[in-house]
From TrEMBL:
Domain HpcH/HpaI aldolase/citrate lyase: 33-197
Protein name: CoA ester lyase
Classification via Pfam families: HpcH_HpaI (PF03328)
Cofactor requirement: Mg(2+)
Binding site for substrate: 94, 159
Keywords: Lyase, Magnesium, Metal-binding
Keyword Metal-binding: yes
Record-listed Mg(2+) binding positions: 159, 186
Amino acid sequence: MTGSRPAKDFFRPLAVGAPEPVREVPARPSRAIHFFDPSNAKMAAKVPDMVGTVDVLLGNLEDAVKADNKVAAREGLVEIAQATDFGPTQLWTRINALDSPWVLDDLTTLVPAIGDKLDVVMVPKVQGAEDIHYIDRLLAQLEAKAGLDRPILVHAILETARGVANVEEICGASPRMQGLSLGPADLAADRRMKTTRVGGGHPGYLVREDPPRVDGVANLEASRSTYQQDLWHYTIARMVDACAMHGIYPYYGPFGDISDVVACEDQFRNAFLLGCVGTWSLHPKQIAIANRVFSPSTEDVAHARRVVAAMGDGTGAVMLDGKMEDDASLKQCLVMVELAEQLAAIDPELKAAYDAIEVA
Ligand code: GLV
Ligand code: MG
């Protein structure tokens, strides 16, 4: 790949004294990444009480924070992070875009002040590997200076046409790469899509059934069913493949219609089924939706365990309830069982539900 480091150097720290890069991105549950505005005192005050109720708390410094509040948001995040014990909950931040006047101060302030508490830095509007290389080197320099003993990971938002075109090289640009999120609002604008929403579907994006025929003649006046299609299917599918290929994690992004919990759940579930591990939450009620959707159901876990048990050494084929199971369906079931184990380790309610599954 043009511009990439040779294999022998890929895992070398990019600054003298910076922590060793990770060889494998830890599979930490991150079903909901809950966004808060650290410059909003009311929102910030709720953060300590949310620890333990959500997998990831993210202090947002970028879009949705007014230009006049950028410094207050950055300083607010430092204050909250220093005062809070996050326990099992991860702390992430979304920094300002690389072409903004704020991002350098974001990083040079946050890393020395709270670098030991920050798990992941989310970078918006990533266009190509060069953006990740810039962040990678800067983080290494700041980590070395701050004497940090573990690297801060990097998450890119896929929200430009060029970013989508370069998605594979972005995922493979650094061992810091933790994952990707879909940024449907910026992506729609950058692509010049004719939508005005933040995530979700659109009633105009549909297919229509063929007209009924009478004596071989199409009746174009007849009413016909239409089926809304998913505007984001193509992008999410590309993200999932790029992430899987590089051993990192794909996420849905924002769903802006907070009141439409049903459509929100549908979008999240499509992403889960396609391979995403989590999503953003813009309101506390979306946390519950994300936790439900991105945790395998007890029915799925029960079935997966049955297949694992029936497949013995994992080779060959068996019939279960009239359906053929083989090495490949076993591998799918193992994904489900493994995810259930990871989630049970941090979510006592889920653990109780999974433990209660009867072995058939
Ligand atoms: C998120 O940042 C988006 O643009 O959708
Ligand atoms: Mg955006």
